[in-house]
Design a protein that fits this description.
By secondary structure, the chain is of the alpha/beta class. α4 (about 100-125) runs antiparallel to α5. The chain has three domains: about 1-25 and about 160-260, 3-Layer(bba) Sandwich (Glucose Oxidase, domain 1), CATH 3.50.30.10; about 35-150, Enzyme I, Chain A, domain 2; about 275-585, Phosphoenolpyruvate-binding domains (TIM Barrel). The protein is built from 21 helices and 16 strands. α9 links the parallel β9 and β10. Helices cover about 50% and strands about 15% of the residues. It has helices spanning about 40-65, 70-80, 85-100, 100-125, 125-150, 175-180, 200-205, 245-265, 290-300, 320-335, 370-380, 380-395, 410-430, 445-450, 450-455, 465-475, 490-510, 520-530, 545-550, 555-565, 570-585; strands at about 1-5, 5-10, 15-20, 165-170, 185-190, 210-215, 230, 235-240, 280-285, 305, 340-345, 400-405, 440-445, 460-465, 510-515, 535-540. The chain has an eight-stranded mixed sheet with strand order 1-8-7-3-4-5-6-2. It is globular, with a radius of gyration of 26 Å.
Length: about 600
């Protein structure tokens, strides 16, 4: 048994068979086959090797003719690997001895060999070690080609894998489009080697209520499809090959978590009011229209953040105005016309939008490039389509519009000017829409936080996006596990910016909400209230736990806590202090 620690991004516990996706998304469908199919699996392996070798041979000839022998020899080495009888004989022997499927035998054989190479690489100097790692990468690529040949077609989606699941999905990384097709019916949980706590993949795992751990580091060489694994989304653990006692322990924890969820449901209809009578509005964050039902289920008072970019995923073309309109209208229909629904306009980079695929080359630094509202102001047709749909849907309920990643007052004014032009267009067309729609802006870059007093003159509300605000303030990529220790919402620099935004909003009568992951963590609830926040927006299933903390607090207590935090110099000091405070008022909330 091995325990690997990563970053917990979606709570819950899951136990089940591993479904391993390699870095190219190849699925290892099953571990063993019936005894009478063993020779058929050996035959499949030999056919796949012949096909892969033939492809390498053709590539070698093509590249040699076009670029010379040096390039052709790259494929010559691969061709030799496919024809290496000694290695593949061992794989064949494993199929016959253990009734392994051909895919599992290839995966296991290559991964075991790669692990030995990597272990050797760690003991060697930098130059020799780099060569060993290069060889390991080549072997992984060879395995990928054989696996594709075994499939005879592109990788299957998780839901289409033989056996039907549910599985624990393990991968180097997962894209949002991968996880968009996940469901509890097919996927019990997932864990990845890469990734950060606030990536879109992590956000979707929360929305789909699937336990998940990311940023675990290298582990795929130590596991193969069908192995039993445990994902602990509460503590951020991936447990490989657990023993019986550990399985029993986690089965008990899984049941206890389900019981805790039942207790939280009892809070659904109770108000989020502090012990001394101050009301706090709790809203839900959603990615997909059908998740509005989750807001109602967990007691949210509306939607504080609808991430509209997920309308663009898994589509061959950009969504039409009608597709936007129907998605937004359906949220209002689910929640009712009196519940607020804040729609954030498109927040993606050019590489994710179909109509922009030829607009730009790959940016060297996409976090500081043409993304979010900057992209929309470059691609006005795309922006107008969404604004028209939001205005039309707002005729049916309390829909509000929010512009993301505003960094200057000029950007915000450009957005408002375009919004007014779209209103005139809808007027001319005789279409129903809401002219007095409430307009807000995200505060998620330091420049916006520092200019909050100016931006407050332009909008009806602010929403502090702590995910990006932390990233940009601390210059720490939120998806890079190498700097995960720097990415901390409790850093005093971040807290000073948040407090400044709250002050600017209060002075201008502008509502201030926090919609980042910070707002859904009970450890920060007292601090946020103490800084003056009276509205929080979080993943729906986190709302009851936050509400429970609110109902135990007094505002003067929260303000004293915030005053104490202001005297602290480091994120670790703040975090430890907040944890100690939460442990005193709600011991079971801090593990």
């Amino acid at each position: 048994m091995e325990k690997r620690r990563g970053i917990p991004v979606s709570p819950g516990v899951a136990i089940g068979p591993a479904l391993v996706l390699d870095t190219e998304g190849v699925v290892i469908p099953q571990r063993t086959v019936p005894a009478d199919q063993v020779e058929a699996e050996v035959g499949r392996l030999h056919v796949a090797l012949e096909e892969a070798a033939a492809e390498a041979r053709a590539a070698r000839q093509r590249f040699t003719a076009q670029f010379g022998a040096a390039y052709g020899n790259i494929f010559g080495a691969q061709q030799s690997a496919f024809e290496d009888g000694a290695f593949w004989d061992r794989v064949t022997a494993a199929i016959r001895a253990n009734s392994y499927s051909a895919e599992y035998a290839v995966s296991r054989g290559v991964r075991e060999f790669v692990k030995k190479l990597e272990d050797a690489g760690r003991r060697l100097g930098a130059e020799a070690g780099a060569e060993v790692y290069r060889r390991a990468a080549e072997l992984n690529d060879i395995a990928r080609q054989v696996l594709h040949a075994l499939h005879g077609h592109p990788a299957q989606p998780v839901g289409g894998v033989a056996g039907g699941g549910p599985f624990v999905v393990l991968a180097n990384d997962l894209m949002p489009s991968d996880t968009a097709d996940f469901s509890p019916r097919t996927v019990r949980a997932f864990a990845t080697e890469s990734g950060g706590p606030t990536s879109h993949t992590a956000i979707l795992a929360n929305a789909l209520e699937i336990p998940a751990v990311v940023g675990v580091g290298r582990f795929l060489t130590d596991v193969s499809g069908g192995d039993v694994v445990i994902v602990d989304g509460e503590r951020g653990l991936l447990i490989l090959d657990p023993d019986e006692a550990t399985v029993a322990e986690y089965e008990g924890r899984r049941v206890a978590l389900l019981n805790r969820a039942d207790r939280f449901h009892a809070l659904r209809d109770k108000p989020a009011v502090t012990h001394d009578g101050t009301t706090v509005r709790l809203l839900g964050n959603i990615e997909l229209a059908h998740e509005a039902a989750h807001c109602a289920e967990w007691g949210a008072e509306g939607v504080g953040l609808y991430r509209s970019e997920f309308l663009y995923l898994n589509k061959a073309a950009d969504p039409t105005e009608e597709e936007h309109y129907e998605a937004y209208r359906s949220v209002v229909q689910t929640l009712g016309p009196d519940k607020p629904v804040v729609i954030r306009t498109l927040d993606l980079g050019a590489d994710k939008v179909f109509s922009l695929s030829s607009l730009l080359t790959t940016e060297k630094n996409p976090f500081l490039g043409l993304r979010s509202v900057r992209l929309c102001l470059r691609k006005l047709d795309l922006f107008r389509t969404q604004l028209r749909a939001i205005l039309r849907a707002a005729a049916h309920g309390d829909i509000r519009i929010m512009f993301p990643m505003i960094s200057t007052a000029d950007e915000l004014r450009q957005c408002k000017t375009l919004l007014n032009e779209v209103k005139d267009d809808l007027d001319d067309a005789g279409l129903a829409f809401k002219r007095d729609i409430r307009v807000g802006t995200m505060i998620e870059v330091p420049s916006a936080a520092l200019m909050a007093d100016v931006l407050a003159r332009e909008v009806d509300f602010f929403s502090v996006g702590t995910n990006d605000l932390v990233q940009y303030t601390l210059a720490a990529d939120r998806n890079n596990e190498n700097v995960a220790n720097l990415y901390n919402p409790a850093d005093p620099s971040v807290l000073r910016l948040i407090e400044g935004v709250v002050k600017a909003g209060r002075e201008r009568g502008v509502e201030v909400n926090v919609c980042g992951e910070m707002s859904g963590e009970p450890v920060y609830t007292a601090l946020l209230l103490g800084l003056g926040l009276r509205q929080l927006s979080a993943t729906p299933r986190k709302i009851p736990e936050v509400k429970r903390v609110i109902r135990l607090l007094r505002v003067d207590e929260a303000e004293r806590l915030a005053a104490q935090v202001r005297r602290m110099d480091t994120a670790s000091q703040v975090t430890n202090y907040l944890r100690d405070h939460l442990r005193r008022i709600l011991p079971e909330a801090v593990d």
